[in-house]
């Protein structure tokens, strides 16, 4: 503590209590200003921002449901009508919020209401003239707001959930679903937001009053003690210890050799110990480190680095009193005088257990993704927005006997999959451009193999987005449909043969009919001539008889 002794005698011109009182009062005033003038007004804005982000996230979940149904529609699993009916039905049943009464509605780009869960009488109606309770053309406003970016926030007045007689301000987030020309929307009631903000501000005021009272008492006590102590600088050390002990981080002060001089309350509570049991001991011999010899050795190395003027850092694993595992981000920082001599070391520990668990969870999720990606029988790849191939699975490499290093971090269209016929490369470039603009691309691709045969692949490019709607990459997928295409070609060939045979048989029948018609015409003509002969013979007989008599 010799470093603190050097501060004795400084500032003798003014009383210690005054030098303590001025910054204390200033701090209190600054604290009050920050709480009432800055923090409290920001509470509502923070809540609004949080709720908006929640609305955006929930709407993207609903859009994800529609994307799934759209994918089933494109694959032919369900019809277009069934996909849209299921989409409206599922989203109509989705609820969220504290009372599980927040909902979604759907209208199309032409202002027709597709689905409204609380006002089903609006379903199928033209809403272009529909206004909220303040006269705003609500649906038209939403269509116009989403025309540029595909999504937007719109404020208006609406009924309170399922209570049509209660009208309150509301703000909604609406997002377009371009494949079906739908707009999916949901909203929050600003009355809820104002009530929650007021409740939080009341809590904050009460906490502030308590803290101010405590600080005022502590400040009054400090001033009284400062006046009693006169110009004794030890009061400053007491203040330092107050801050030191009230920190929620694990803090301590070491000698350059590693002997523990001070330990704050948070660090003592962590091991359930007291000052006199750890002060004066080498830090690596204290209960914090007794469960691991490896941690003790690493700690010695960190302290040695700090004692020579460096900064020692490391992450250590500890078992708490209840047996739970805790990870601590530990650091040792030297404090030096003007000549560069190390006076003491400040050691700090931050509980990073949640961060460590999150990292492990991310690693597990990535491993699961890798497993699914690598073991898939379909051809899969990850393409960045510039068209470079970043990841490719084993199935895609094996189909053309390609090494990963020959295609990764290179333009996708330069891969061996797209070289024959050459027109495939230009088609793929155009597909990547369309997918990078947010479209789903799907086509049947025919490639020529080195042995002269052909392969047919059902190929697709889909954009992938983060929770904020930002496009991250393109997912390329391909499925070998050569056998299916071969069967389709055989069916087409059989159909052509059948059509040809039908045409030939039809021609034969047509020729037979013509011959029959000709024979019928000849028979009729013969019968006519025979009848005429009989008539002539009769007439001649009737004439010849009188003539013969004459």
Task: Walk me through the structure.
With 550 residues, this protein is an alpha+beta fold. 50% of the residues lie in helices and 22% in strands. The chain contains 13 helices and 15 strands. The strands form three sheets. The protein has a five-stranded antiparallel β-sheet with strand order 2-1-5-4-3, with helices on both faces. Strands 7-6-10-9-8 form a five-stranded antiparallel β-sheet, with helices on both faces. Helix 2 runs antiparallel to helix 3 and helix 2 packs antiparallel against helix 5. The N terminus is likely disordered.
Can you give keywords for this protein?
50% helix; 15 strands; 5-stranded antiparallel β-sheet; alpha+beta
Strand-residue proportion? 15-25%
Low-confidence stretches: 1-12
Category by helix and strand content: alpha+beta
Distance between the termini: 178 Å
Strand order across the largest sheet: 2-1-5-4-3
Number of strands: 15
Q: Give the count of helical stretches.
A: 13
Biggest beta-sheet profile: 5 strands, antiparallel
Shape designation: elongated
Order of helices and strands: HHHEEHEEEHHEEHHHEEEHEEHHEEEH
């Amino acid at each position: 503590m010799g470093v603190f002794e050097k501060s004795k005698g400084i500032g003798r011109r003014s009383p210690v209590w005054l030098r303590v009182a001025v910054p204390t009062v200033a701090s209190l005033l600054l604290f009050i200003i920050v709480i009432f003038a800055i923090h409290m007004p920001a509470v509502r804005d923070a809540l609004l921002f949080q709720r908006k982000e929640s609305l955006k996230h929930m709407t993207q979940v609903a859009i994800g449901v529609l994307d799934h149904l759209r994918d089933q529609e494109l694959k032919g699993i369900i019809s277009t009508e069934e996909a849209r009916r299921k989409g409206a039905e599922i989203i109509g049943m989705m609820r969220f919020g504290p009372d599980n009464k927040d909902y979604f509605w759907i209208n199309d780009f032409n202002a027709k209401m597709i689905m409204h869960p609380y006002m089903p009488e609006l379903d199928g109606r033209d809403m272009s003239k529909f206004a909220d309770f303040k006269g705003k053309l609500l649906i038209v406003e939403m269509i116009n707001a989403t025309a540029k970016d595909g999504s937007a926030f719109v404020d208006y007045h609406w009924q309170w959930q399922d209570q049509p007689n209660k009208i309150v301000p509301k703000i909604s987030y609406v997002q377009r679903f371009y494949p079906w020309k739908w707009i999916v929307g949901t909203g929050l009631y600003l009355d809820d937001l104002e009530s929650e903000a007021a409740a939080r501000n009341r809590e904050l005021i009460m906490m502030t009053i308590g803290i101010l009272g405590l600080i005022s008492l502590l400040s009054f006590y400090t001033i009284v003690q400062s006046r009693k102590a006169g110009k004794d600088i030890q009061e400053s050390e007491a203040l330092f210890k107050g801050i030191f002990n009230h920190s929620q981080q694990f803090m301590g002060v070491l000698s350059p050799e590693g002997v523990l001089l001070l330990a704050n309350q948070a660090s003592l509570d962590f091991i359930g110990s007291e000052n006199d049991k750890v002060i004066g001991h080498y830090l690596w011999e204290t209960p914090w480190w007794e469960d691991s010899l490896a941690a003790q050795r690493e700690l010695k190395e960190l302290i040695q680095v700090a004692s020579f003027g460096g900064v020692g850092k490391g992450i250590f694993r500890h078992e708490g009193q209840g047996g739970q595992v805790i990870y601590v981000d530990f650091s040792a920082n030297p404090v030096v005088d003007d000549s560069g001599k190390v006076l003491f070391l400040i050691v700090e520990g931050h509980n990073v257990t949640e961060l460590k668990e999150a990292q492990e969870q991310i690693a597990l999720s990535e491993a699961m993704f890798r497993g699914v990606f690598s073991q898939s029988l379909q051809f899969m790849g990850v393409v960045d927005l510039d068209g470079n191939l970043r990841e490719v699975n084993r199935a895609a490499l094996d189909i053309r006997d390609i090494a990963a290093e020959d295609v990764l971090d290179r333009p996708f269209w330069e891969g061996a999959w797209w070289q024959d016929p050459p027109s495939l490369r230009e088609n793929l470039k155009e597909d990547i451009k369309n997918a990078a603009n947010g479209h789903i691309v799907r086509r049947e691709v025919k490639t020529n193999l080195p042995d002269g045969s052909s392969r047919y692949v059902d190929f697709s490019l889909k954009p992938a987005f983060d929770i904020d709607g930002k496009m991250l990459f393109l997912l390329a997928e391909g499925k070998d449909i050569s056998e299916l295409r071969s069967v389709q070609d055989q069916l087409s060939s059989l159909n052509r043969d059948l059509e040809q045979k039908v045409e030939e048989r039809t021609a034969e029948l047509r020729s037979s009919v013509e011959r029959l018609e000709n024979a019928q015409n000849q028979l009729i003509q013969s019968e006519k001539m025979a009848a005429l002969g009989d008539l002539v013979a009769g007439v001649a007989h009737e004439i010849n008889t009188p003539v013969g008599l004459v």
